[in-house]
Amino acid sequence: MIYLDYQATTPLAPEAREAMLAWLGGPEGTGFANPHSPHRPGRAAAAAIEVAREQVAALLPPGGRVIFTGSATEALNLAILGLKPRRIAVSAIEHAAVLDTARASGAELDVIDVDGEGLVAGDAAIVPETDLVAVMQVNNEIGTIQPVEALAEAAHRVGALFLCDAVQGAGKLETPSGADMIALSAHKLYGPKGIGALWVRDGVDLTPLIRGGGQEQGLRSGTLSPALCAGFGAAAALALKLQSQDAAHVEALWQQAREALPGWLLNGSASQRWHGNLNVRRPGLDVARLMSDVRNVAFSAGSACASGSGRPSHVLRAIGLADPDIKSSVRIGFGRYTRPDEVGDACALIRAAAAAQGV
Length: 359
Ligand code: PLP
Fold this sequence. Notes:
By secondary structure, this protein is of the alpha/beta class. The chain has eleven helices and 13 strands. The structure holds pyridoxal-5'-phosphate.
């Protein structure tokens, strides 16, 4: 199987797996201890969590705190609902974790459009009554990189806070220094599933969504998993160390894949983009048939906004594509562990299957 779905999730880095093992704990040791217990094994587990928190914080700007959550979805819910905003502005291409939460929050909602390249204008107009502006750093469907620093400034000019969903950019690009809250997910940066984080700038006040034991400075009750935290921390440290090497590797794969799929049309900007995301379309292509013909390659139908959601892509629609174009799009995602021969083989299989459809 060739895995080319790095936007959905990334493989666990061996270094992250290794860091987790000590804290999975069998009866022979005490690595299973509750990190919130005051005895020695508990304190050791708590110390491991604090090391992980520092490692994650190293991806983020100074002047804030890292709150561990169960996912980036939970982090985004905490940011939006915990702020209790009355008016929110979000980009049209946010992930459902932002869009649906903003809709459910009861706040008045303004949607900031994107252009045909999938980019929000840095000088987008923001209504003065706005309390919160949420724009993602890198889009998960088309990889476009948004001008988040400029948008954070625009938010601050009207007295609003700025929330950045940095799930697809963290560890790959610098996280935006102008944001007031930033959401991350471990499993998109070669860490484990089941853990995310919300970075909150000092002075920003949130109301918890999950109450109980008062963990995570009272903002997110529940016993933390030292193993998940340690895996997240190790993955974050590795991402920081390998950032330029990873980017160069992805760039080479991007060039290779673009050349291997001649005539396929790119969805979204080519230049303002994370090049590990190749979302392309071929007029007339039946994507469902393509995916069943190329079943030894794990990639995504470009039209599915989240695997299995069944909803057509609001992102491809927002960049102006008509339904037939949306339905003929695929997303191919690669990263640190993708080999050039895998990209070559996958593109050859995709080309051949498209040719068999006569497109
Ligand atoms: N935001 C973006 C841009 C994503 O790609 C995802 C995952 O698909 C999420 C948020 C949600 O992350 P998690 O799986 O940690 O809930």
